[in-house]
Every structure is written in structure tokens, then in C-alpha cells.
Automatic annotation (TrEMBL):
The UniProt record lists the keyword Cell membrane: yes
Bilayer topology term: Multi-pass membrane protein
Protein name (database record): Carbohydrate ABC transporter membrane protein 1 (CUT1 family)
Source organism: Rhizobium azibense
Localization: Cell membrane
Keywords: Cell membrane, Membrane, Transmembrane, Transmembrane helix, Transport
Gene3D superfamilies: MetI-like
Domain ABC transmembrane type-1: 102-315
């Protein structure tokens, strides 16, 4: 044991400074660490500052501005305004037009969401099981999501024309009754929902394809050994549980896209006939920029924001309980 002692001291003892000299060295070392920490913090703030500035300028300031306008009677272009408190919100909640717009939006979302997710998953499963032309099928189904809906709406308007449109011409050839699809209160909202499903279908399909690619083949082989050799059993036991995170993401994104539907309404129906196809974003636009009731439009925007946040939180919470990450 004495062989490990140098000069009557253990080696560890030699590395520990003692006395005033040791204290100065420790204090100097701590000062250097604090200075380096301040430099690193400064660099971190400098690197994140552009993103923070953009976040404040493009998100927080507009939100604060909308909340501020919502409690005033300001009209677009006016030079003066007055504080009215919650009067705009009381008017919104008592407005039958707003009730119709809110109900149309909810019905639209509840139609587009399951239609997009269900068809997107089905097409992804078919493409994944296909032996050839996978890239072609992916591109064909993804094109509507990449296309500008303003341009595609014109094509839909031509297809749905009451006299020369391909849809009615086909129905006439089959001997079935036709309809004025975009001017009938009974058909206009379902038609807009079909257009919404068509637009978002490619996005959902691509995400589901990515999720299917990430599932190891070994799990399917193990399921076969356990007797799950039917495609439905493989889907229920292996595919669906492992697609849980993808399902949650697709549900939330498609729901938000559906809530933000505006282009098709603006181009094809203008909210008509009556209020049959008017949705919340179109109501905000019309009240703010056509009727110049900016305070009222801002209050509708606040209610819209609260509804979207609430439904998104409920949906995320419900989906999170069913997500499998392992």
C-alpha cells in the first residue's frame, strides 16, 4: 500500500488546492465558467432572435390585434373607433347567420375528416400492396393537394354545371334525375365536402404510406406464425396500432384544414344559396371586407379561434389515449 503514497500524501491529495492560492484558483475557474455561460447564452439568443421576431410579428401581434379590434366598433378604413366591450360577442352569439355558418362548418368538418382519413388509409394500403406503378399511383393521388384550389374550383364548376356539366350529362345518359348542385340547399354542402375530401386525400395518403413503410416486416411474419394470416387480422393486430401516431397527426392536420376551408366557398358558392354553404372563414371575410364591420368580423374570428382550439385539444386528448408508440 505504501508504494502508492508519494511524499507522504495520496495522489488525490496532490490535485486538491489548499489555502488562499487554491481558493483563488477555484474562484478564477468559476468566473471563467460563468463568463463562458454568458457568452453561450448570448449566442443562443442571437441565433433564436430572428425566429422569435418572426413569431411575434406574424402570430402574437396579429392575435393581440384581433382581440383588440373585437372589443371596438372599428370599421375598415375608418379613422376613429370606440370601445364597446363585449357587445360584438353578444351580437355574434345572437346572430342566426353565425349559427348557420357555425353549423355548416361543423357538418363540413365531420364529413371531410372521416372521409379523408378513411379513403387515404384505404388507398395507401392498396398502393403499398401493389407490385408495380407505385410511384405513378402516389403522384396521381397527391396532385390535387399540390394544385391550387382556386384553379381546381373552376374545373369543378364546369363539371357541376347544371346543363353542360359532365356530372349531369352522365346522369342524363343513365336516365337518372339531375340537380343544380351548387345552387340547391340540399346538395351544396355535400358537394363542397366531396371537394374537400378530394383536395386533402393525397396528403393523408402520403402520410399513411410513410407510416406503413416504417412498420417492420418481421412483425407481419410473427403475426402470420400466430395465426393472423388474414389481411383483416394483420390490419387489426399490427398495422392499426403502429399507425397510431400517424393517425393522430393526420386527424389534427386534416381537421384544421377543413376548418380553414374558404377558397371553394368563395369561388363556387359565395356562401349561398342563402346561408346554406357559408362557413366561418367566409363569414369573417364577408363581415370584415365586404360589409366593413371589422369589429364584428374580429369577434367572429375570436370565437372561431376558440372553437378550433377547443376541438383540437379534445381530439388530441382522445387520440392520445389510443396511440401506441411502441
Amino acid at each position: 500500500m505504501n508504494d502508492h503514497i508519494v511524499g507522504g500524501k495520496w495522489p488525490l491529495q496532490e490535485t486538491i488546492p489548499t489555502g488562499q492560492s487554491g481558493n483563488r484558483r477555484v474562484e478564477h475557474h468559476n468566473l471563467r465558467l460563468r463568463a463562458r455561460g454568458r457568452r453561450e447564452m448570448l449566442v443562443a439568443w442571437l441565433l433564436t432572435a430572428p425566429a422569435l421576431i418572426l413569431l411575434v410579428a406574424l402570430f402574437f401581434l396579429p392575435v393581440v390585434g384581433v382581440f383588440t379590434i373585437a372589443v371596438t366598433d372599428w370599421q375598415f378604413g375608418a379613422s376613429a373607433l370606440s370601445f364597446v366591450g363585449l357587445a360584438n360577442f353578444r351580437e355574434v352569439l345572437a346572430d342566426d347567420g353565425f349559427h348557420a355558418s357555425l353549423m355548416n362548418t361543423v357538418v363540413y368538418v365531420l364529413t371531410v375528416l372521416p372521409g379523408t382519413v378513411g379513403l387515404g388509409l384505404a388507398i395507401a394500403l392498396v398502393i403499398e400492396s401493389s407490385k408495380s406503378f407505385r410511384s405513378f399511383y402516389r403522384a396521381i393521388h397527391f396532385l390535387p393537394y399540390m394544385a391550387t384550389l382556386a384553379a381546381m374550383a373552376i374545373a369543378w364548376e364546369a363539371l357541376l354545371h347544371p346543363t353542360i356539366g359532365l356530372v349531369n350529362q352522365t346522369l342524363v345518359g343513365l336516365g337518372w334525375p339531375t340537380a343544380n348542385w351548387l345552387r340547391d340547399e340540399r346538395t351544396v354542402l355535400p358537394v363542397l365536402a366531396i371537394i374537400g375530401i378530394w383536395q386533402n386525400l393525397g396528403f393523408a395518403m402520403v402520410l399513411f404510406l410513410a407510416g406503413l413503410k416504417s412498420i417492420p416486416q418481421d412483425l407481419y411474419d410473427a403475426a402470420d406464425l400466430d395465426g393472423a394470416d388474414i389481411w383483416f387480422d394483420r390490419l387489426r393486430i399490427v398495422t392499426m396500432p403502429l399507425l397510431g401516431p400517424v393517425f393522430m397527426f393526420v386527424f389534427i392536420v386534416v381537421a384544421l384544414n377543413a376548418f380553414e376551408s374558404f377558397d371553394a366557398v368563395q369561388i363556387l358558392t359565395q356562401g349561398g344559396p342563402g346561408h346554406a354553404s357559408e362557413m366561418l372563414l367566409f363569414t369573417i371575410y364577408r363581415e370584415s371586407f365586404e360589409f366593413f364591420r371589422t369589429g364584428y368580423g374580429a369577434s367572429v374570428a375570436v370565437v372561431f379561434l376558440l372553437v378550433v382550439v377547443l376541438l383540437t385539444m379534445i381530439q388530441a386528448s382522445a387520440m392520445d389515449r389510443r396511440v401506441h408508440y411502441q
